[in-house]
Amino acid sequence: MKKVTEIKTHSGNLELLGGKICLDFINTLDWRGRENPVEYLNNYEDVIRWFDYLEITNEKETRIYRRLTKKTPAIAREALVYTIELRELLHRVFHATSHQQRPLKKDFESFNAYLKSAMTAASIEMNDAGFILDCRPDTSTLIGILNPVIWDATNVLTSNDCKRVKSCANKECGWFFFDTSKNSSRQWCDMKSCGNRAKARTFYLKKGGT
What's this model's pTM, rounded to 2 decimal places? Predict the structure, then answer.
């Protein structure tokens, strides 16, 4: 019998359950509630791979970012730190809003600093419905790749649907998702994994397990 090779999960094939770009970005750190969370952004190539995977960047932009990463490795390491700081900032902000709390003032101030930087690449674009404000990646700098994430987070936070952002009921998981269910009753990032495990655990405890 042919041996089945398990496909290793990485930033370029990570399951996308957030429903929003900014939430899937936060979810690049998995199992936040465990002692050893799983990090999928371990270097800047991982960051580029994630943006390419979501088709946020096009082929030309991806090539430019890879060339910059190889040419300036020290700057790439700094850009990775900047990226992780943004991700954890967004996690704190959405963790607060998903629990009907106000984010810390210093976190909002930090996010506004990211937003001001991203807005330098914003432009008015026209589509069939009219005009939209678009925020594309800026290929002149590595951190410019983050612009669409920052802009997406801004749109979610300033919309009436911000209350639809939830964190998985599995405390070990920690993933965020955008709840589009009619009665806003979704609890899990994914019923097949976190939901079924929680149900099995509840059943086990009812049967007298420990």
Answer: 0.86
